[in-house]
Amino acid sequence: MPRTRTLRHRTDARHNERIAALVGDHGPAGYGAYWMILEIMHREEGMRIEHSRPRMRRLAAQVGIDATEFARLLQGMIEIYELFAVDENYLVSTIGYTRHSKQVLPQQPIERASATHPELPAPKEDMVIEPATDSPVRAQDIHNWLNRTISRRAPAAVRSLLPLSIAESVYIYKHYDDEPVFAAIDQLQADTALHNHGGNMYNAIRKLLDG
Question: Could you tell me the residue range of the domain that residue 35 belongs to?
Fold first, then answer.
């Protein structure tokens, strides 16, 4: 049996931008599932979990969540909230919580300046998002800005599609340039048939951006 490790984290970890987004979308259940996965992960050799279908089903049972629901939640933790990553077929944490651990993935600097989004607070030059210190305020500002943009440019889509969550807004902002996003939103307004892409705003926009 692997030796016991200490899982260290600050008492304000929930204010990390990514964790705050998880809690905003999934509430205490999402927050609890995140820490249960971390606890299990830190008991494993190498502090990582084999990312295979049987192991993920067993992990769902350990966390106490239906396997299908857990798969969706874990996918969001990887792709949207960026709290976990899959590295060489192992699930790993992107945030280090042990004294000697290091982050598996480097934190990416915020690339866009406030000149692009005058409504958003200006990031410091070469600012890097650090674990457990991010304010949820910036995520909320991004979410508000994108929702206002969608409401102004695609009111028809707003009426027929489920709105973006905070984490989904942040994901779109971080991973796509503005012009393609604006073009996708305009397409949603011009062609109501596109509203069938997944039933929610995030899936509809991603379908156009990635298509």
Answer: 13-93
